[in-house]
């Protein structure tokens, strides 16, 4: 099963940066077990939101022709716990793009407070016989449309970015 942890994109500047949000609610089953009576968002799920925000930014920079996978969490630091009622704001900035991989710095905020920061390395893989395609192109474009990426996407010069497809 593949899923998106973020709820929607609020800004998307191709080749540069992206912001997305995730509303934390008690409707999320995993919070009832982590921890009973004191629900907290596991840091691994916050990292997942960071990785999805940054990974899609990198994949878009490569016109979705190369598969982008999280290869390494170079560093991650969380300053406080996210709890139900919080809205996590993820901001991903591409630090470096090379043919084999990319480095992205991502912060998570709750309101104006920095909740966490991570440096993530993404590997670039060519789909083929030994590496299956993670997503069908049409399905991915539909999901991205549902995340409102095409509503907010702009080119680095600020002009509206055309929808991919």
Could you describe the 3D structure shown?
22% of the residues lie in helices and 37% in strands. The protein is α+β, with helices and mostly antiparallel strands and 165 residues long. The chain has a single domain, classed as Thiol Ester Dehydrase, Chain A (Roll), CATH 3.10.129.10. A seven-stranded mixed β-sheet has the order 3-6-5-4-2-1-7. The two termini are 23 Å apart.
How would you sum up this structure in a few lines?
With 165 residues, the protein is of the alpha+beta class. The protein is 22% helix and 37% strand.
Strand order of the largest sheet: 3-6-5-4-2-1-7
CATH superfamily: Hotdog Thioesterase
Under the CATH scheme, the architecture is Roll
Mean pLDDT: 92
Helical content, roughly?
10-25%
CATH fold name: Thiol Ester Dehydrase, Chain A
Proportion of residues in β-strands: 35-45%
Rg result: 16 Å
The number of domains is 1
Which class do the helix and strand fractions yield? alpha+beta
SSE order: EEHHEEEEHHE
The helix tally amounts to 4
User: What is the highest CATH level, the class?
Assistant: Alpha Beta
Give the overall shape. Answer: globular
Number of strands: 7
Distance between the first and last residues' Cα: 23 Å
Which spans have pLDDT < 50 for at least 5 consecutive residues?
Answer: none
Largest sheet: 7 strands, mixed
């Amino acid at each position: 099963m593949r899923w998106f942890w973020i709820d929607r994109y609020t800004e998307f500047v191709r080749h540069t940066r992206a912001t997305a949000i995730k509303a934390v609610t008690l409707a999320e089953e995993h919070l009832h077990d982590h921890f009973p009576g004191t629900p907290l968002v596991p840091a691994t799920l916050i990292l997942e939101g960071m990785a999805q925000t940054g990974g899609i930014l990198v994949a878009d920079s490569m016109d979705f022709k190369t598969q982008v996978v999280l290869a390494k969490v170079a560093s991650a630091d969380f300053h406080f716990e996210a709890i139900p009622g919080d809205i996590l704001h993820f901001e991903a900035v591409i630090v470096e793009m090379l043919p084999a991989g990319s480095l992205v710095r991502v912060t998570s905020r709750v309101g104006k407070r920095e909740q966490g920061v991570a440096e993530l390395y993404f590997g670039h893989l060519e789909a083929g016989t030994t590496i299956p395609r993670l997503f069908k192109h049409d399905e991915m474009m539909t999901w991205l449309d549902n995340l409102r990426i095409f509503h907010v996407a702009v080119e680095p010069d600020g002009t509206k970015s055309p929808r991919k497809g």
